[in-house]
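hey team, just a heads up i'm posting the complex here instead of the shared drive bc the drive is being weird again. everything in one block, sequence lines first with there labels, then the predicted structure for the whole assembly after. its two chains so it's a bit long, scroll down
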Amino acid sequence: MVGAIGFWGWVGIVVLKAVIILIFVATAAAYMSYAERKVSARIQLRHGPNRVGPLGLLQPLADVVKLFFKENTAPKGRERFLFLLAPSIAGAVAIFAFAAIPVNGPTTIGSFTLHWDLIHVNVGLLFILAMTSLGVYSIFLGGYAANSKYSLLGGLRSAAQLISYEMAVAFAIMGVIILSGSLDMEQIVTKQTGLWFIFLQPLAFFLYFIAGLAEGNRLPFDLPEAESELGAGYHTEYSSMKFAFYFLAEYINMVIICSIATTLFLGGWLPPFAFLSFIPGVIWYLVKISLLLFTMIWIRFTLPRFRYDRLMNFGWKVLLPLGLMNIVVTGVVIALRAA
Amino acid sequence: MLKEIAQGMAFTLRQMFRKPITLNYPEEQKPTFPRHRGRHMLHRYDNGLERCIGCELCAGACPVGCIYVLPAENDPEHPVSPGERYAARYEINLMRCIYCGYCAEACPTEAITLGPRYDLADYRREHTVVTKDELLESWPSFTTGGAKPSVLGAGADQRGHEKLESGVDPVKAWDAFEESHIHPDEATPGHGGLEVTPPTVKRTGSGEGESR
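-- predicted structure starts here --
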C-alpha cells in the first residue's frame, strides 16, 4: 500500500481522505436534521423549515450557530471528567466508524490502488461493529455522569437495549459473512456483482434494519430518550455544544447504519443493472443510503414507541431466534451446494 | 401486525404528497370569516367625507370604555364630515377592547365597523392605542362602510391583506380558501380518505339505554 507512492504520499492521501470524510459526515448529519424536519412536516401536512435561505436550506447552519452561542449549563454534583468525556466519545466514535466504509470501488492508478475508505482493513466490518458498539459508552456514561434521575434511567435503558440489539445485528450480518466469506467491506460488495445479497438474505436485511433502528436509538426504539417519560433521556442535562455532539452522533449513526446496510445488502457502490455502470459508484452509494435514510425518517413518523418490556421481548425472543435460524439455513445451503 | 404496519406506512407516504394545510403565516393569511370582528375601521362617504360626526355614542355604548372621542365643530367652508361636528381625535385602546361590536351597533352613521384585521400584537404598549390616522380609511382607496362590515382589503393599513384586491367579496374569499385547503374528497377532514369505522358499542340491555 505504501510502496508505490512513498510514505509521505500515503500520509497525504490519508489526510485528504480524512478531511473529505469529516466534511461529508458533518454535512450529512446537519442535512439529515433538515431532511428529518422537512419529511416529518410533509407527513404531518405542514411546511417545515423554510425561513433561512431558499427552501430553508441554510437552516442547519443557523442551528449550528445557535448551538454554539447557547449557554453551557451543567448540573451540580456531576462527574466532571465523565460528563465531558461522554459526548466526546459519542461524536468521535461515530466518525471513526465511517473510516472503514467504502463509498466506491478501488481505483487503480498505475501500480497504486486507491481505496475509497479512509483506512482499508481486511476486517473492516469487524472494525465498524466495534466502533458502533463503543457508542453505548457515551450514552451510558453521559446518563451516569449527569447526576439526574432521567439521565440515569435513559442511560440504563440504552445500555440494556444496545447490548441486546447488538446481538441481533451480529447475527443478521453473519449470513452475509457466510455468503461472501470475508469481513473485507470491499470484497463483500464485489461479491454482490450481479445479485445483491438482499435477494439472497431478505430476512437478514430486515433483521439488520430493525436492529439498526434500535442501535441508532431511532423510533420506534428510542427508549433511551423517550421524551414523554424521561425528559430527554441520557442527554437531559446536556446543553450547547455538548448536546450538539450527541445530536451529531445520532445522525452520523443513522448514516453509518444505512451505509452498512447498503454495503452488506444493497451492493454498495454497484449499479442495479450493468448498463448503468457509467454513473460513478459514489452516486449509487449516495442514492442507496438516501433511500434507506428516508425510510428511517418515514418509520419514525409512522410508528409509535415500543414499551420497554416489549422491546426486550422483541429483541431476545423474535430477532435473535430469527437471526440464528437464518445463519443455520444459510450455512446448510452453502454446505449442501459445496458437497 | 405486519399488515397494520404496512397500512400505517402507506398512509404516511400518501400524506407526503398532499398539500400542507398550514399557511406561511405572516405572508399568507387565512381570510377572516365575513362577519369576523377584528380591529375597528372608520369609514367615509362616497364623496370622501368622514362618516363620523363625533356624537360619542360609540364611547357611551362601549362596555369597557376603551373609545375616546374628541369632537370639534366643522368649518362650513371645508367640512370634514357632513354633520355639525366631527371627531378631531378618535382613539381606541385595543388592550381593553373586547371586540363586542356595540360601538358599530350604536353608530348612527355606520361610521365605525369591526374589520378583518387580527394581528394586533405590538412591542410597545403605547402602540396598542390606535389613533384616528390608523383607524380611518385613507383617501382614494376607501369603502363606504355600512353594508359590508369587513370587506377584505378595504383599508390601506390592512397589513397582510395587501395581496387581496380591494373590493374582494369576503364570502367568496372565504369559500375559496376552504375549498383549496379542505379536501372535498374526504368524508371527514383530516382522515386523508382513510375509511373510518365508527366504534360499535355493545349493549347489554335491550335498548333501554336509548329510550332514556
